[in-house]
Amino acid sequence: MLLAIDVSASVDVEEDLLQRGGLAAALLAPEVVEAFLADPSDPVVLGAYEWSGRFAQDVILWWKRIETAEDLAEVAGAIGLSKRGRDDLPTAIGDALGYGASLFHKGPDCMARTLDVAGDGVGNDGFPPWAAYRAGRLDGVVVNGLAIQGGEQDVAAYYREEVIRGPGSFVIEAQGFGDYERAMREKLFRELSGMAVSTLRLFALPGGPAYR
After folding, report:
1. Strand 2-6 and strand 44-51: pairing?
2. Which residues contact 96 (CB under 8 A, 6 or more apart)?
3. Domain of 73?
4. Considering its fold, how many domains does the chain have in total?
5. What pTM, to 2 d.p., does this model score?
6. For the segment 84-99, what is each residue's pLDDT rounded down to a tens digit?
7. With 50 as the cut, is the pLDDT of residue 199 above it?
């Protein structure tokens, strides 16, 4: 599972703190912890990065195998204390997707791969999401969205039409950054529950990989 956090210019300092703190708190919610640790024989591997304009993406968390509640606490602490690299660039969602694809290719083989893109605006820089998908490097990856509403644009509609991809993909709406933690908690729980169903289906196939 790979988490992508928007740090474009439309996200101010307070909103960025709400975003990072909200993600950290969501990772420690009891139902999310339980979902992460539901199958000790098939651990989730988690990574996170921030994104904004073209060529402006940075890893926040390199791939971490989540086997215990302590692992999640370590991850949540690292994300909660992380600092954004840039605050002055536009919104290049296609490039953000392409960067996520590169991290998947550098990471472990996964039984189910999910890219979780959060943002508060529509793409206005770089190449569009469809171009990232046409390249083929995200084949087999389910892309879900967390759309942060509150501005003039209907971000959720854009995410549904342009960003999400794959079987069962979905968008969760946050009504502003103050609602980010609640929305992220709901989305993580739904994603992890969906992974468990996918894993059960794939166990019928021989030679499946050991991560998701």
Report:
1. parallel
2. 4, 51, 57, 117
3. 2-202
4. 1
5. 0.90
6. 999 999 999 999 999 9
7. no
